[in-house]
Amino acid sequence: MMNLDALNDEDLLRLALAGDEAAFTALYRRRQPSVYRFALQMSGSRALAEDVTQEVFLTLVRDGQRFDPERGRLLAFLFGVARHHVLRRLARERSFIQMAESEDESAASVGLIAEGDPLSELTRGEMIARVRAAVLALPPHYREAVVLCDLHEMSYAEAAEVIGCAIGTVRSRLHRARLMLIEKLRGTQDEAASRAVNPTGCFA
Amino acid sequence: MNCNDFETKVTDLARAQMIDAEARDRALAHAATCRRCAARLGDEQRLTAGLRELAATFDDEQMPAGAAAQLLAAFREAHHLAPAAKPVRRRLAWAAAAVILIGLMALAAVRFVGGRRAQPTLAQQPTPQESAPPSAPQAPPPVQIPTPHHQRRAPGRAPQEMARKQDGAARPPAPQPPQPSPVGIDEQAGEIATSFIPLSNGRSLAAAESMQLVRVELPRSALVSFGLPMNVERADERVKADVLIGNDGVARAIRFVR
Question: Phi-psi region for residue A83, left (φ > 0), alpha (ψ -120 to 50) or beta?
């Protein structure tokens, strides 16, 4: 019996397109989690991410012949299809950012953060929530650079393959996106600090 | 390295990306002397740590279990695999089961009817076999009067109807000697039978409100007793006959069946 785990994505797809259900299942199990996470990180919505992931693999089922190994890896193809669906859905539902939390919830805690150090004093949970909200607040083309390069740890070349742009474009988008994130996190801190009483200041 | 050069390297530096070792050293050296760029590097490094923490929170995120089943269904449909074939197989299985069931029911019905007809339950009345010549090689089976509890009707056809079909219902059986009559074909059983021959007990077939048809086996010599021809070469074989029995248990008529 063939060891499907030893096959690469492209071979699994070739078998799947020939009707090999086990190969398709193996491919799905291998790549579905990252596609789903990408869609979730881009959209902030589990429902949307589920829909998009289904669409991605349905596309593979119905139009898998469209994939050309000469043009790139299957994973980049899957992410590219997912990206297309996510951006389309986000354009349709522009106000849909489910995971962004209220800025007021931890305002007092943010006010304790030392100036110029927006992340160091945040508790882990708060910090993660704020970073998540900041990422989701980025414009989609900057967001995808952060999601691919930082959350999925892709190289510039791999991200460029997914996005379908030049490597330099990814690099510059990521640089700009990270600056925006830092500014946003600092802005969150400044905003919170201006609204909250700083106990350290009172007792200084 | 100046601050502008540092800015082009700071993201890769903070993300621990592979950069030229010399460029890295020069960037770190610049940060050591430039407070602004040092702070900038610190922000980038903390952001990297925060993004890694955020990425880790997605490790447990999973698709619902049912999603895979839907995809597999779509895959099978696209490739005309099991799901597309399953309904056909299921239909065939049901059809086969129905055929088998119908066959079993038909078999049971045939056996049931056959068992009823084979029961020699005529009454101990004057019967053809009693009037058979003593030279019959085999004694006729004992004939009993069917009690109401034992009475069984021939399936699908009332005795009167059978008699009417063969002889005419309004016509009572004639007491005169029976004539070889045209044979009838029982389409249900695939048998060929003579017309009913009234037995000489003086009772009218029409007088009986309902009668019982009983299948018996008689010595072939009984044919002679009713004026029917008999193949002497098969004299020792038995012949089937249907006997019409009235409510009073008295046999009224008989026909021979082949």
Answer: alpha
Rounded-to-5 percentages of helix, strand, coil across chain A: 75, 0, 25
Quickly tell me which residue has 């056909």 as its tokens. B88
Distance CA A90, CA A84 (A): 10
Q: Which ranges constitute the DSSP H helices of chain B?
A: 3-14, 21-33, 35-57, 66-78, 82-118, 159-167, 222-225
ipTM value for the complex: 0.78
> Backbone phi, then psi, for B238, in 5-degree steps?
-95, 155
- Asked whether B71 and A58 are in contact (CB, 8 A), the reply is yes
The confidence score (pLDDT) of residue A164 equals: 92
Q: Which of A150, A153, A183, A186 to mutate to test the interface with B (most CBs of B within 10 A)?
A: A150
Per CB-CB distance under 8 Å, the chain A contacts of B54 are: 128, 131-132, 135, 151
pLDDT digits (tens, 9 = 90+) for A131-159: 999 999 999 999 999 999 999 999 999 99
Answer whether B53 sits within 8 Å of A127, measured CB to CB.
yes
Place of tokens 């096959």: A7
pLDDT value for A117: 57
Interface contact flag, B43 A118, Cβ < 8 Å: yes
Of B134, B117, B129, B126, the C-alpha closest to B218 is: B129
Q: How far is B87 from chain A (nearest CA, A)?
A: 18
